[in-house]
Every structure is written in C-alpha cells, then in structure tokens.
Amino acid sequence: xxxxxxxxxxxxxxxxxxxxxxxxxxxxxxxxxxxxxxxxxxxxxxxxxxxxxxxxxxxxxxxxxxxxxxxxxxxxxxxxxxxxxxxxxxxxxxxxxxxxxxxxxxxxxxxxxxxxxxxxxxxxxxxxxxxxxxxxxxxxxxxxxxxxxxxxxxxxxxxxxxxxxxxxxxxxxxxxxxxxxxxxxxxxxxxxxxxxxxxxxxxxxxxxxxxxxxxxxxxxxxxxxxxxxxxxxxxxxxxxxxxxxxxxxxxxxxxxxxxxxxxxxxxxxxxxxxxxxxxxxxxxxxxxxxxxxxxxxxxxxxxxxxxxxxxxxxxxxxxxxxxxxxxxxxxxxxxxxxxxxxxxxxxxxxxxxxxxxxxxxxxxxxxxxxxxxxxxxxxxxxxxxxxxxxxxxxxxxxxxxxxxxxxxxxxxxxxxxxxxx
Length: 421
Known about the structure:
CATH topology of the domain at 39-94 and 259-271 and 300-315 and 326-333 and 368-416: Beta-Lactamase
CATH class of the domain at 39-94 and 259-271 and 300-315 and 326-333 and 368-416: Alpha Beta
Order of helices and strands: HEHEEEEHEEHHHHHEEEHEEHEEEEEH
Number of helices: 11
Radius of gyration: 23 Å
C-alpha cells in the first residue's frame, strides 16, 4: 500500500506526462476542441470544420469567419489560435491587420465628398494638388530607349479609384510583400513625390494595382475636407458605424487582442511569427501616418457593421451614411472590357471595389456582380448582391502567393455559401 504522505508512482507518472504536455506547441495537433464560437443563430459549426485541415497542417494558426445579412450577423466563428506560442485562443473580437481592405472604406468615405459636390470623379487631380500640373509620361521602347512625353489627358480622380492612374514613386514601391516601413512620412510628402515622377502608363488605359492612387486620394480628402485623413475616416465612417475597434493606431490593450502574423517555414513545416515590416512601432504612436491604402486594423464585429451598411444601401441603424445610387455606381464596372483586371480571373473594377464579372476559379459559386476586396495577409470580404450576404474571412499569413486566390479563401467561401439562414 502506498504511504499516505507520499505520491504513488502512478500519480508521479501522470504528473510528468501533464507537465511535458504543457510544453507542446499547438502546431500540427488536432485542435478541433480549441474553438471559440459565437453564432447568433444556434446551430452546428460550419466554418470551423471546413478550416480545420489548415490548422492541423500548420497552414494557419487560426482565424475568424463571418456571414452577414442586411439584418444581422448570421454566423461568426473563431477557430484556432490568435498566437500559437502563447496558447492564446482566437476570439470573435480578435483584431487583424486588414491591409488593403482599407481601400473600400477609404473609397466609401471619399464618395461622400462627391455627393456633397466638393469633388468630381472626372476632375483632374491637379485641381486639388497643383504639383501634378504638367506631369509627363515615360515611354520605354522595345530597344530600351526612354522618352518623356505629354500624356493624352491628365490623371483624373476616377483613375485613382480604379488603379488606372499610372502613378509612380521614388519612395513607395508597390508590392504586396513590402519590406520597408511606409508610415514615416505624411500623405502630403508621398503625394508630392508621386507628382515629381513621370507616369508609367497613359491614364485610364491599364489596370495596375497600386497603393499610390489611394494615398493621393487620402491627400485629396485632406485638402477638400480641411480635416486630417484619419479624423475624416473617424467622423464619416467609424463613429457612425460604431466601429470602436477599427483604427490606424491600435492601443496597447487592442494589441494584446491582436492576431499574430505568421509565415510558413516549409523546411520545418512550422509557422514562424513575424513583425509587419510596413509599420514602425509602437503602433499606437500618433505620429505614424494613417495609410489610406492599407493601414487599418479591425475585427469581425466591426467589419460586420460596415458590410451590413453596404447591404442596406448606405443605411446603418436608421442613419444614412451614403446614398444608394452612389453605392450602385461604386459597384458598377468602370473599365469595360479592359484586360488583366484584378488578382484573379473574371474580375473588373468598380470604384474602390473589385467586382466579379464572370464567376470562375475562386469566385465560382458566387454570383456575377459580387464585389469586395482582399488584404495582403489573406483577409477577405465579398458581398453577393443576389444572396444579399457578405462573406468575411480574417486570417494572418504573410507569405501567401496570391491572398485573393488562396485555398483558404476558397474553402471558407464554399462552407459559408452553405449557410442559408
């Protein structure tokens, strides 16, 4: 019989196994039970089971998925971990860097100025920023010879919203995989630099995805409204939409609720934590520039407010933020049959939104006319106007070859389309 004052050999063995287990990282194990789910309609989990394979193969640490209707958030599910080393589970209120999902928000806020008659889509941008007057177009011939010439027309406001402006910069290099902090200089500084560089294409003739157009758009907002871009976004969108966790400057408390970003090390099949090289730290430093092209941090509940407003043609809880006819213009094809538009096949451009012209590949299953935008770390938000649903996926993988065409997006989308509530 064991001595009453001493632990048995069996209890010591159990204790040892438990302590060893505490050191195990959650990578690669089945974490189906480690799920926080908050569904407004009680029912079986749909998103988590679909995404679990990405968790078990160390392709994702975790994420949040939502389906939003005009009336409510139909489903919101958090799965996996916000930080795998800290064993911090993903929560529905976890914050994410939403990257270029900032662009449609900038566009919606900007279009309220168009409604007020303070700016026109067909105005040349030199009307608001004189430094663009006389900007040249750099022609590079087949033999490599370069010639500066006058473009057929100047860059217009509409070109900024459709990525057809041809702007270039000596400071900001347009890339989804930027390794340089770009929140150091003011929007005015970046805009002046764009104005000093020749155009890389005739305005309105080529789609070339660019952060520069939205940076200039943000500067026009400042010039026309008399507010800083950050204050304008707060007063026009975030405050009326009650988006209290959407910010360019996350507080220390919000940073504690933020999902960690990862890249995948294929040699070890592990997820490696990274810092976002586009930003300087601490993130709550008010001296950091709010980037109209991709500077926002947000979470599922806040994003549901924005996309519910869009589904309700500009209304949120009885308050009109933007007119229905303005939103319809924003999701109307602005580029006709222009080739090579978007990061995936079958797309065209509205004003700040990418629009599905022909459902194919990753958009197969969505209806023509679906519109939305993705972000560099795999975040996605798309509205199907026929189903009247918004489908939102929040993840943080820095090294996806094509975030808009990822298997994560396709898998989430297929699962979300089965939710018919």
